[in-house]
Structure formats: structure tokens, C-alpha cells
Amino acid sequence: MGKVILDVRELSTKYVTRFGESVYAVDRVSLKVEEGKSLGIAGESGCGKSTLALSLMGYYFAPLHYISGDIIIDGVNISKMHPDEVRRKILGKEIAYIPQAAMNALNPTLKIINFIEDVIHAHDPKVPKKQIYEMARQRFEELGLPAEVLQKYPVELSGGMKQRTVIATSVILSPKVLIADEPSSALDVTSQKMVIKMLRDMMERGLVKAMIFITHELPLLYNVTDDIMVMYAGQIVEQGTAQQVVFDPLHPYSKGLMGSIIVPESGVRDVKLTAIPGAPPNLKRPPQGCRFADRCKYVQAECRVQSIYMREAANNRAYRCIYPEEQLRKVYENEG
Fold it and tell me: What is the pTM of this model?
């Protein structure tokens, strides 16, 4: 096992509505990402992926609130830090975040270089503009972006170029961990390919030491990440290598998720598509037992009443289910 850059232990966060109700969006999530590795997080819309991404930053503001757990980046626990300290010392330097629709984060009234100046001056207002320009030019050229982009306004750039500009800006301070939340959504196929290549290049060049890639598209994760975690209703329900989770899912939700999407890979593409019936539970009042129970065709009475924990499986895998691995596989075999 290599050096662990990001170590998250039992992290729980919630939203508090204006009516004082709590929505438990991230529930006791644990994960580790090694240096030089990328982790994919998959799940349907509303499962808590983006909330987890925000939570991993260690920077909380209403309506998102920290409950418990630890976020350790390269040996430093940031979960108990004051928000101002996190903003100045951690964000952008230790961990960076590319949000959904990141291209809309650019200020339309500022040239790209001025936007980058604002980003860097938020950490250190004493950095000279000339030094910032050289930093930006070098980073953009390393990532295949022409230096003249720095002198343009966002309106002068295509959607794909805007997205790549935001990504390049997010790693301007060489963060150890990069979190990319749906970075290729809302882009055409060609632009998606360029964005994915850019993210791979950043890892290969060592511009970031580890990456978390969030999407609802499992096949995309298979081609981008080393490992995959599947999230459902605020909890991690399965974790394993990309190969394992895509081609040999263990958890009933992971299996249903793979059965409901088109996968071009040989051996999977000919399988008939199926839908997962029902809807996720209300996270204002999470169920006592398995959160997938109401949608699972393998549900047992005890699934609804007892807490379900992550269960170790062969080949360093884990999944959240009442069934032991051998029994679960027999259920799948009998069904097939």
C-alpha cells in the first residue's frame, strides 16, 4: 500500500433547512486515497455525492454543517480547523474543488488572468501580479492551454475551453488532492474527451497527488479512476477497484445501477437494460435498517430493522449488505 494522501474517517455532515429540519446527507463515510491514485464516487442524483465533495473540503457554512468525523490530508487533520484557517491554508493549496457547472464560476467582467489574481490574492495578497502571470502561463502551457487565454474574457471562450480554464486555475497552487464534481457534464463528446485527458495529464505530471472524480456515470469512472465507491442515500454501499465494481458489482444497488446504464465494454453491452424501481428514502428521517431495502428485490425482514454495516469481501473489497458474499453470489447465480 502506498502513502495515503487523503484519509477520511466516519465523516458525517447535514443540511439544516430554514425551518430547522436536519437532512443527513453524508452518513459515516470513510475512504482513503493513496498518492498517485484516483478514486471515483458514483451514484444517482440526490445520493449525496456533491455534498460529500463539499464536506471533504473541511469548509462549512450554512446550510451545510459538520457533525463528526476526521478529514486528514497528508497527515494533517483539517476537520477541527477554524473556517478562516481552512480558507487561507487548506483550500487551493492542500485540497481543491471543481464544482458542477464549473465554467459558470468565471466572472464574466474579468479577464481570466484577473480572475486568477483574485484567487491567489485570497491566500496571499502580497504576491506580485507579474509573478502570478508567470505561474499561470506556465501552468496553462503545461496543460496544453495557450497563454493568450489569460487575456481573454469568459465570453470569448467555448464551453470546453472555459471548463479546462477552471480546471487549470484550480491547480494553480499545486494542491495535493483534487476533487472533480461532474467535470465533463454539459459538454459535447469532444470537449469531454479533452477534459478527461487534461485530468489524466495532471495526475501523470504529478501536478496533484491524488484525485476524487464524482459522477453518476460508472462506465466513465472505469476509464478514469483506479478505484470506485458507490454511494446511496448518504452512505457508501460498495467499494473496490474500478474493474470489480463495474464488471462484478456485489451490492444489489451497484448491480442495479450497472444494469440500468449502457456500457460499451465487451461482455456487458449485450445485457438487457433494467430499471431500479422506487425512490431513495427521505434523509430527514433515514430508515433504521438498510436504506436500499424498499427498492431491493432481495430484501429480508431483518434488513429493515437492524443497522447494516460495511462487510469485508475477497480481494480487498467491501459492501454494505446483510448477505455474506458467498450467499449473495448464489442469489445472483440462481436469478441468472
Answer: 0.91
